[in-house]
Amino acid sequence: MVNYKELGLVNTNDLFKKAIEGKYAIPAFNFNNMEQMQAIIAACVETKSPVILQVSSGARKYANQTLLRYMAQGAVEYAKELGQNIPVVLHLDHGDTFELCKSCIDSGFSSVMIDGSHFSYEENIALTKKVVEYAHAHGVSVEGELGVLAGVEDDVVAEHHTYTQPEEVVDFVTRTGVDSLAISIGTSHGANKFTPAQCTRDENGVLIPPPLRFDILE
């Protein structure tokens, strides 16, 4: 087992706390190869920004988990070489099983997402809680998901869109212990694009997508 601290990585907890206090966002970029990672780190060094390097389950299969681990370690050292010791997170994007999350934690990821949104509410809670218990024992932060975005995100497929219900959020976070939460407020995401039937036309006949539910976000 490799702990993320040995690779010079950090989890998301302190980063998110500082971002909330400072009222700024932290970029999260999915990468599949060295060239993408180089560009991400170079840009974040230039802007002195912390960064979340995201790996999907598909990218992990493609790039090889061992190579990804050393690439993440290389990203930390590359940033120093460029003159900035920026915080770097290695995050599993849309993990859909406990086994995948555990494997990532064991191989040096500092953060994992467990996306149980395609299960029932109670099944989502049970799966997320199991991941949280294992991750927190190793200092790894966990992102959960509540609500469903229609479309395809790696191996997670959803036919219908379901907004996150604000009244469920406190219960979900309390019972699972997640550190952060992905919510659904109506964004077009992944392989899903809005169809004309979902849109309205403005006075110029231009198709306008459904409005984002900022009331839910609030």
Written account of the structure:
This protein has one domain: Alpha-Beta Barrel (TIM Barrel). It starts with 12 loop residues before the first helix and ends with a helix. With 218 residues, it is α/β, with parallel strands linked by helices. The protein has 8 helices and 10 strands. Strand 4, helix 6 (121-136) and strand 5 (141-146) form a beta-alpha-beta unit. The mean pLDDT is 91. The strands form 3 sheets. It has a 6-stranded parallel sheet. A two-stranded antiparallel sheet has the order 6-7. Helices cover 40% and strands 19% of the residues.
Summarize the structure.
The chain is α/β, with parallel strands linked by helices and 218 residues long. The protein has helices spanning 13-22, 34-46, 57-63, 65-81, 98-106, 121-136, 166-176, 214-217; strands at residues 28-30, 51-56, 88-95, 111-114, 141-146, 151-153, 156-158, 180-183, 200-201, 207-208.
Strand portion: 15-25%
Walk across the major sheet and give the strand order. Answer: 1-2-3-4-5-8
Mind telling me the CATH class?
Answer: Alpha Beta
- CA(first)-CA(last) distance: 40 Å
> Domains counted in the coordinates: how many?
1
Mean pLDDT: 91
Give the radius of gyration. 18 Å
CATH superfamily: Aldolase class I
What's the overall geometry? globular
Class by alpha and beta content: alpha/beta
Q: How many DSSP H or I helices?
A: 8
CATH architecture: Alpha-Beta Barrel
**Number of DSSP strand runs:** 10
The helicity comes to 25-40%
Sheet with the most strands, sense and barrel status: 6 strands, parallel
